[in-house]
Amino acid sequence: MYTGEHGSSTYSLDSREGCNPFHVEEPKLKYERLANGVTEILQKDAASCMTVHDKFLALGTHFGKVFLLDIQGNVTQKFEISPVRINQISLDESGEHVGICSEDGKVQVFGLYTREGFHENFDCPVKVVALHPRFSSSNYKQFVTGGNKLLLYERNWLNRWKTSTLHEGEGTITNVQWRANLIAWANNVGVKIYDISTKQRITNVLRDNVSLRPDMYPCSLCWKDNSTLIIGWGSSVKICAVKERDHTEMRDLPSRYVEIVSAFETEFFISGLAPLADQLVHLYFVKENSDHMEEEFRARPRLDIIQPLPEGFEEISSDALTVRNFQENECRDYRLEHSEGESLFYIISPKDIVVAKERDQDDHIDWLLDKKKYEEALMAAEISFKNVKRHEKIGMAYINHLVEKGDYATAARKCQKVLGKNMELWENEVYRFKTIGQLKAISQYLPRGDLRLRPAIYEMILNEFLKTDYEGFATLIREWPGELYNNMTIVQAVADHLKKDPTNSTLLTTLAELYTYDQRYDRALEIYLRLRHKDVYQLIHKHNLFSSIEYKIVLLMDFDKEKAVDMLLDNEDKISTDRVLEELRDRPELLHIYLHKLFKRDHHKGQRYHERQIGLYAEYDRPNLLPFLRDSIHCPLEKALEICQERNFVEETVFLLSRMGNCRRALQMIMEELEDVDKAIEFAKEQDDAELWEDLIFYSIDKPPFITGLLNNIGTHVDPILLIHRIKERMEIPNLRDSLVKILHDYNLQILLREGCKKILVADSLSLLQKMHRTQMRGVRVDEESICESCHASILPSDMAQNFSVAVFHCRHMFHKECLPSPGTIPGVQFCNICSAKQRGPGSGILEIKK
């Protein structure tokens, strides 16, 4: 059911697609009956023709009257033209002039706002009239009429009307349409097109089905644009394109020609045509067979939208229209007119006028709502918000639908988008969800930013969770800002529940979070420590609670030793080392961990505790005792040696003995207690003491395995012959042959290394000698700027004609011969005294220049 804006009446239709309950395709057009003044007119009279202008409508009746109507159907003017049927009304583009013809032969052309006009009575019925589209202009005062022949009327410069016959002899003219310079008309034979600018007829499109009476099944003509004509006749449709002819092909032919770009047959008889973008709107007259009647009966007319194709068409939509008295109407009783400005289509029948228009966004949303496609309707409303006029409640309808379906989660999620910042709607929805027991569903979508509901709303939801879902309650407390609700009220509610279940970790954790928000950090810290909660350290750091943990250090370390110690060491300025040691005095294992990390960070910071640490390492962490003894320079060695000897820690005792200078005793312990010759050899290598090597040989001489170890490792530090000479005869030594081979191999390796080094040294010496020789063989430049290194005068005399003698050393120092120092101790050898003084080597090799 569709309610029209053009009047108060309702109008119904059936869509062929709508007959299928599984077909949910949206209709393309909406329909409404043209009411108001039209209703009264058609009760007493019957519509015979109508023409449409963007600003108004012109309706002709069977009783010879013409009514001007607004687009709502209200009568604005009335003309008594004739006592008989009005056949056609024509308007120019401006809507200022009208042409009317009637069945009794009357033709009237007049201005709606001027007194000028043309009145003529013919002796035969005039079926059609058409004004030039630009009739209002003085240069285009032309119109045509059609009865038995097609006449063109033109007003000349004397203001008189000149008549010329464009066509005759092919029966009655039943339709004419004028567009720009082209006039198209239909008679009993076919359709002709005339070019008014060249005064040439350019085509003749013959009628296909000549068996149909042209008066009962008249031709429908419609210009899609200035060069495209659509012809509908019977059940045949042709789309004709008017084209310019190439100048080389013209000869005696018209300058234009017509090409049929599409032609197809339809199922029913055509009563009217109109363009809709690149599609066509067809009004069909329908006859159907009944199961109870042998003859055909008249069915409701159909309005179809089709997509033309080169050799056929595709049906887009089809609607059967319920017009008044459709059972009595013939094909010729229907007309289809259209308004190009607004894509309005008028279906005219004798007793009814129906307006079809393209569906807008509001109609689209209405259809989606009717089909309960709320999600799509809401999306369409959001995308085209500016075009939506009546759909403020779409979202609420969608939410109501989801609630009725029981899809509470989706309904709650849509509240965020639909309710927006309307606090009243939010609170109403919350109470509705409470009524149906679904507060949990809406809880995560409640506003918590700039828009906030009353605290009571949030507290109501928190209490609901507290009764049934501790985990959900804890999640909300973490997610919701504390200012949304009264913190003390919720704290009291949680405390009441803890009385029933005092060990519930979820409630305790949540209570600690509430205390934290309320800045009661001590209470929160107690709970976190009791629960050993991982956030305890974050809480301490964030709120600087170090003063509160001075007496809780043992608890913190029992929870997480590593984190606790790191925190204490990072904040020594807030909790001193002495204070920590005092707290840990009864827990030596924890004290060791703290002091160990302190020592790792700085070997000197806790030096006064190093003596105490020796016993702690010995008790709780022996693997780190030896590294501690190695790294600490503040550790009392006697105390350490005493502890290690008491506990029989041989490796630590050996290290301490060597550090205290008793290396022979240390070596003895390695040999006697550890019985590890490799470690003994390593120890002797570290000390690099000949006496230790002698002691090592002495301790090992009666132990064949030790002798093997010495033979394998002693070669680079002690002459192996010393050891071999001391080996007793007939003593069995394991792997002796291999050890001797290794000694020989090592010796050979040493010889090879020495020889290799010698070769390298000789090669380098020769290379450097050659380089020095090349350097000394080069000439030395002596010029006016060169000076004597002794007298600092120019090395060359001012008068080059005089005899002079110059000595130049290879070090580039120059002297006058008379300025040379006395010769050295070596006869015949002169040295540069400057280079000799600087210990740069003898600057011998004098180059003498004499002239």
From TrEMBL:
SUPFAM superfamilies (alphabetical): TPR-like, WD40 repeat-like
Chief place where the protein resides: cytoplasm
Gene Ontology biological process terms from the UniProt entry: cellular response to starvation; endosomal vesicle fusion; macroautophagy; protein targeting to vacuole
Sample GO molecular function, one term: zinc ion binding
Membrane topology listed for this record: Peripheral membrane protein
Keywords per UniProt: Autophagy, Cytoplasm, Cytoplasmic vesicle, Endosome, Golgi apparatus, Lysosome, Membrane, Metal-binding, Protein transport, Transport, Zinc, Zinc-finger
Positions of the Vps41 C-terminal RING finger domain: 786-837
Highest rank taxon of the organism: Eukaryota
The keyword Zinc is assigned to this record: yes
A Gene Ontology term for the protein's cellular component: late endosome membrane
Compartments where found: Cytoplasm, Cytosol; Early endosome membrane; Endosome membrane; Late endosome membrane
InterPro entries reported for this sequence: Beta-prop_Vps41, Clathrin_H-chain/VPS_repeat, TPR-like_helical_dom_sf, Vps41, Vps41/Vps8, WD40/YVTN_repeat-like_dom_sf, WD40_repeat_dom_sf, Znf_RING_Vps41
CHCR repeats: 565-709
Vps41 beta-propeller domain ranges (all copies): 29-358
Pfam families documented for this protein: Beta-prop_Vps41, TPR_Vps41, zf-RING_Vps41
Protein family per UniProt: Belongs to the VPS41 family.
PANTHER family named among the record's database cross-references: VACUOLAR PROTEIN SORTING VPS41, VACUOLAR PROTEIN SORTING-ASSOCIATED PROTEIN 41 HOMOLOG
Function noted in UniProt: Plays a role in vesicle-mediated protein trafficking to lysosomal compartments including the endocytic membrane transport pathways.
Protein name according to UniProt: Vacuolar protein sorting-associated protein 41 homolog
Species the sequence originates in: Hucho hucho (huchen)
